[in-house]
Amino acid sequence: MEETSLLWLFFLISLLSCTTNQARLTVSPSSSQFFKRDFVSLSCEEDDSSAGWTLRRNTSKQQRTQCGDGWGKPAGYLCNISVLFIQDAGVYWCESREGPISNMVNLTVTDKSVILQSPVLPVMEGDDITLLCKTKTTPSNLPAAFYKDGSLIRKQPTGHMTIQHVSRSDEGLYKCDISGHGESPSSWITVTVKPSSAVPTSSSALPPDYGSFQLAFRVVLHLVVFCPYFISTLLMVSLYRCRGKAVHLNKRHLD
Ligand SMILES: *[C@@H]1O[C@H](CO)[C@@H](O)[C@H](O)[C@H]1NC(C)=O
Ligand SMILES: *[C@@H]1O[C@H](CO)[C@@H](O)[C@H](O)[C@H]1NC(C)=O
Ligand SMILES: *[C@@H]1O[C@H](CO)[C@@H](O)[C@H](O)[C@H]1NC(C)=O
């Protein structure tokens, strides 16, 4: 009976530690658009290094192939693609053996001469973001026009544009254009809402520190994870002590 309850506890522990693990896929250089023949390094950053994440991708030709399986060069938690081709365009993500997946990243590879460098990961509401319009051949920045959802939003003589304090309304499909060089592909920019502003009421109606709720939640989660360890250790110790006593008594009885 004790054995089954112990097994149950271990099952609970592994279940809980699974849900607390998180991986984050990052791209370096930080861009979702690349020129053909560019270099890119992708990495699965994680909370718990024992989880064993693999980087996978879907392209138009193949699905769920992992780094090293016909593409990319695995290097620890990195996966390097030293020469990008058009066929490398696709969705990339990190996946653990247990199933959970990280954020997904869309990579675009172009053989044209202009790209837009925009944030790869979702941006937090209130942050500042910078968009850069680059040509393949000119090292210095050229004047560029920036478009959101098909309409011109700004012309910048320096080729880069900063959007301050982004809000949900800045979310959309962006592209840029450099006169004489052409247009970049389009990339989607995602804006995520901060937990403190996710509640539609005014800030006065909220507890002063919403972040502390999340902290408390994590603490409770960790307690729930570690308590079974503590309890099962106690259980085992008491079992041994009981058995020891029983043997001792039996011996006395025989004597
Ligand atoms: C990748 O392709 C598989 C098989 O078609 C599909 O089930 C999965 O949802 C795709 N993943 C992403 C992130 O697009
Ligand atoms: C992968 O790229 C990183 C730079 O991003 C470099 O430090 C590392 O040596 C490369 N590894 C391999 C195996 O090419
Ligand atoms: C990736 O791009 C495809 C096609 O443009 C789009 O349907 C999909 O939603 C994108 N996924 C992400 C995670 O941005």
Structure, briefly:
The chain is an alpha+beta fold and about 260 residues long.
List the SSEs and their pairings.
Layout: H1 2-20, E1 23-28, E2 33-35, E3 40-46, E4 53-58, E5 65-66, E6 73-75, E7 78-81, E8 90-96, E9 105-110, E10 114-117, E11 123-124, E12 129-135, E13 144-148, E14 151-156, E15 160-163, E16 172-178, E17 182-183, E18 187-189, E19 191-192, H2 211-254
Parallel strand pairs: 2-9, 11-19
Antiparallel strand pairs: 1-3, 3-7, 4-5, 4-8, 6-7, 8-9, 10-12, 12-15, 13-14, 13-16, 16-17, 16-18
Helix pairs in contact: 1-2
Bound molecules: 2-acetamido-2-deoxy-beta-D-glucopyranose (NAG) (3 copies).
* Bound ligands: 2-acetamido-2-deoxy-beta-D-glucopyranose
What's the overall average pLDDT, rounded? 80
Main sheet, how many strands, which sense, barrel? 5 strands, mixed
Strand content: 25-35%
Q: Please state the overall shape, judged from the principal axes of the Cα atoms.
A: elongated
Q: Order of strands across the widest beta sheet?
A: 2-9-8-4-5
Helical percent range? Answer: 10-25%
Helix and strand element order: HEEEEEEEEEEEEEEEEEEEH
Distance between the termini: 32 Å
Write up what this structure looks like.
19% of the residues are buried. Helices cover 25% and strands 34% of the residues. The strands form five sheets. It has a five-stranded mixed β-sheet with strand order 2-9-8-4-5, with no helix packed on it. Strands 13, 14, 16, 17 and 18 form a five-stranded antiparallel β-sheet that branches. A four-stranded antiparallel β-sheet has the order 1-3-7-6, with no helix packed on it. Residues 13-19 and 198-211 have low confidence and may be disordered. The longest helix is centred in the C-terminal third of the chain and has 44 residues, at 211-254. By secondary structure, it is an alpha+beta fold. The structure holds 2-acetamido-2-deoxy-beta-D-glucopyranose (3 copies). One 2-acetamido-2-deoxy-beta-D-glucopyranose is lined by residues 28, 41, 73, 75, 78, 80.
